[in-house]
Amino acid sequence: MEDLLFFLCFLFAEDLMKIRSVRAFDVPNKPGLKSTYGWHPGMPKDTILRVSKSSLGDHGFCQQQYFIKRVLGVKEPENDDMRRGTNVHDAVEEFYQEMNLSYALSMRSYGYDKVLEYFLNHIPKGPSEEMEFELGEEEHLRRYLTKEAQRFMTAEDECFLPIGNEVSLNAVVEIEGVLVHLTGIVDRLFADVEGRPHVHELKTGAWLKPDKNGNLVEKPIKRKSMREELAFYVYLLKQCDHDVLGGLSVEYWGWDHTGGEDIYRCVEPIRVDEISSMFSKLRELVRTHKSYTGNQMGSMFSLKDEGATKYICEPWCNVKGFCPRYYEPLKPPELRAVNE
């Protein structure tokens, strides 16, 4: 019955979402080796499992969502949050590329206001010369660069600029007896005066969320989630074959959230608990793929509990139209349940 429901969901949803065939990617610096999110044990030996920070997060959130997005290749529609995030990330990357450190140091002697003015002058008018920002990107960039101007005033001269700026990393490791291609792009990697590495992530969402009374609060699960995301990069940096950054032992991690009234920044020593938790989830993902047979049903990728459809699937999943757990999209509008 579940397989039939999945098939019906697939037919109803394919006009609403963009379906792409899952392809194998060449593994950098590994001639003849390819990786794919759709790996199963029956594939040729030259094709291995591909895992990114995002795909690992999808699997941890919902295995069936992971199967639909990563294995079947259903691409969720781009929304304003995604476009805003891309535009802000691109502008921040360009800031570090174009910043003249010597000139900034000369401005520092005139005080913070001059440094801030110089930093804010790097905010572009849009994602390209032909386009202007339309999603509030300037405010996110203003918050971020203001925080960076404050950091610059007290930073050691040689420690302000990142040693890695939107850097692509790759590693091939063996997990649960399976070769796995780990891949990811680290937003920023810094080092202190003693050379101790610090990996840093940029998010354009808000750190504090309203509770049932409308008060802005931190959700503990969000801090744990951020730490596990960064734990993936800590492991990737240690295992990767990058000419300069490969083998680094990261000692600190941190993140910025620019979506609130003010930027939220956290920097802390890495935590063994979250690294262990991340690696357990990585092993679980590999074990799931070891039992996958390559079909389009994916019954080994577990479903959320039935009670999750209203509180998790409905507000948070953009591919629920393909999911056998989420029945509502199959019903005519007049028969759908009204949310209480």
Question: Whole-number radius of gyration?
Answer: 22 Å
Specify the number of helices: 10
Alpha-carbon distance between the two ends: 28 Å
CATH class (first level) name of the largest domain: Alpha Beta
Work out the count of structural domains.
2
Summarize model confidence as the mean pLDDT.
90
Q: Give the assembly state of these chains.
A: single chain
Largest sheet: 8 strands, mixed
Low-confidence stretches: 10-16
**Count of extended strands:** 12
CATH topology of the largest domain: Lambda Exonuclease, Chain A
Q: What is the CATH-assigned architecture of the largest domain?
A: Alpha-Beta Complex
SSE-based structural type: alpha/beta
User: Order of SSEs, N→C?
Assistant: HEEEEHHEHHHHEEEEEHEEHH
Shape: globular
Question: Helix fraction?
Answer: 25-40%
**Beta-strand share of residues:** 15-25%
In short:
The protein has 340 residues and is α/β, with parallel strands linked by helices. The chain is built from 10 helices and 12 strands. The radius of gyration is 22 Å and the shape is globular.
Record the SSE blueprint:
Elements: H1 2-13, E1 18-19, E2 25-26, E3 34-36, E4 47-52, H2 53-61, H3 63-71, E5 74-75, H4 80-98, H5 101-108, H6 112-120, H7 137-154, E6 164-175, E7 178-191, E8 197-203, E9 209-210, E10 216-217, H8 220-239, E11 252-257, E12 264-269, H9 272-290, H10 308-316
Helix pairs in contact: 2-3, 4-7, 5-6, 6-7, 8-9
